[in-house]
Amino acid sequence: MPHTIVIFGASGDLTSRKLIPALYNLKRKKRLPEDARIVGFSRTAFSHDEWRKDLRATTQEFAGDKFKPEVWDEFAKQVFYHAGDIGDQADFVALGKFLGELEGGQNASRVYYLSTAPRFYGQAVEQLGKAGLACEDGGCDRRVVIEKPFGIDLASAKALNNTVHAHFKEHQVYRIDHYLGKETVQNLFVLRFANAIFEPIWNRQYIDHVQITVAEEVNVGSRAGYYDSAGVVRDMIQNHLLQLLMVTAMEPPARYAADPVRDEKVKVLLAVRPKTPKDIARDTVRAQYDGYLKAEGVPENSKTATFAAIKLGIDNWRWQGVPFYLRSGKAMSCRTTQIVIQFRQPPHMLFKEGPKTIRDANRLIIQVQPAEGIQMHFQTKVPDAGMTMRQTDLDFNYQKNFGGSIPEAYERLLLDAIEGDASLFARADEVEAAWGICDPILNTWAATDQPKLLTYEPGGWGPVECTEWMAAQRREWFDACPVLH
Ligand SMILES: NC(=O)C1=CN([C@@H]2O[C@H](COP(=O)(O)OP(=O)(O)OC[C@H]3O[C@@H](n4cnc5c(N)ncnc54)[C@H](OP(=O)(O)O)[C@@H]3O)[C@@H](O)[C@H]2O)C=CC1
Ligand SMILES: O=C1O[C@H](COP(=O)(O)O)[C@@H](O)[C@H](O)[C@H]1O
């Protein structure tokens, strides 16, 4: 069956920076089906060749030394453009006709990729449905990939799910979170479920707490217009950090397939202990970097948080009493995404020189990016120094072990969407459960102004009060920039 990938938002930033370079790389690796066609849809009046020419330049820029003119020329033969407006039903009817001709009347498998502004997601889905392009009754193979953000709160996410479900069945819907396409996030499944040594200690008996940090060195740059209405919770925590939390905390699924995996993931979110406004004032830190208010497009009195730390509890047998600390911010010390599994101290210390604080206890660090790898920290005896100990580590690094470059997350996710594997995409209940955790936090911050919005200097690890907040809980953030090999 031939494949067609229709990208709505063809002239946009995501398409040129990520989607087309990812599809090009799939072609280069001979993973893009030979019979796949990529069709761009947006209002700009490109001809096929004009769009291809624009994409060639941007792909060359973003694919770097992976760009091979001869591969591009072959790839370009699979690329087409059809101008249209999401607001215009006639343009969808015309699109359907164009696709039919392109597919030579064959029953092609189609992926509709919504890479337009989020306000168009619902409308685009409706237009596809009304033009008879959704095929929710079966008999043809149609999928829709929906970019983030999926809603701006629980109510809007539910409304969007309702709109989507009016035209597509859930199994046709692929809500993308590109963090799930990152190699190291997939490796977390492997680490946990393809090794026998971790599972027995992956619980409250051995683990003191878990830290999930997504630090970004960049500030909001030119995206302030969007960012100010989102803030760090909507932009990062509701999706990427909660995805990392789910994969870290989930039970082993019965099978590695979309629904068993997502069933276990969603159970984690449903077990997250609900917070009262008093809990939120105590268990969250929010801050804005100094200089944010000067960014173009930010209102002078904006209270948008560019940094947040949130302590969550998971009420189930595995995790009762183990706090999960989620932290993310812009304008931080360095770019690093890491999951720190902080183990407990030994119950009885034989050596007076031995570890005294939780900082010295065993720690497993999953470096999601950019120094993709895993480190295990443990105590060793310093030679010829009595029983003096020092923390050392076992270090697995992707680059050193496997060489080559780590593929962009979109490569894996686009291929999965083409092949019909939804394991690494969010399901409707997952997205809603994530908003169910974030809404009370955002609402409490807005309604009570508690905790106070703090300020932090760019280039550090967030506000000093966040370090103190952790110290008051007898814990310490693992603030380390990864070593790039
Ligand atoms: N850029 C990124 O790095 C990331 C983006 N995303 C998400 O991806 C989506 C796209 O982002 P991005 O590419 O940055 O956005 P852009 O603003 O760059 O692109 C928007 C696209 O939508 C098209 N468009 C706008 N109005 C219409 C319309 N009425 N009918 C048809 N097409 C229309 C525009 O084309 P034209 O004007 O020609 O019609 C353009 O191609 C957003 O939802 C964003 O949240 C998610 C993660 C990262
Ligand atoms: O979705 C988003 O993610 C990026 C960070 O992605 P990464 O792959 O570079 O870690 C973030 O900068 C952006 O604000 C957000 O919308």
Automatic annotation (TrEMBL):
GO BP field: glucose metabolic process; pentose-phosphate shunt, oxidative branch
GO molecular function, one term: glucose-6-phosphate dehydrogenase activity
Reaction catalysed by this enzyme: D-glucose 6-phosphate + NADP(+) = 6-phospho-D-glucono-1,5-lactone + NADPH + H(+)
Database matches in Pfam families: G6PD_C, G6PD_N
GO annotations of cellular component type: cytosol
Leading EC class: oxidoreductase
Domain Glucose-6-phosphate dehydrogenase NAD-binding stretches: 6-187
Pathway where this protein functions: Carbohydrate degradation; pentose phosphate pathway; D-ribulose 5-phosphate from D-glucose 6-phosphate (oxidative stage): step 1/3
Domain annotation Glucose-6-phosphate dehydrogenase C-terminal: ranges: 190-477
Annotated residues for binding of NADP(+): R43, D85, I86, K148
Record keywords: Carbohydrate metabolism, Glucose metabolism, NADP, Oxidoreductase
EC numbers for this chain: 1.1.1.49
UniProt function note: Catalyzes the oxidation of glucose 6-phosphate to 6-phosphogluconolactone.
Active-site annotation: H240
Species: Botrimarina mediterranea
NCBIfam families given in the database record: zwf
Binding locations of substrate: H178, K182, E216, D235, K330
Top-level taxon in the UniProt lineage: Bacteria
Keyword Metal-binding included in the entry's annotation: no
Protein name: Glucose-6-phosphate 1-dehydrogenase
Homology family: Belongs to the glucose-6-phosphate dehydrogenase family.
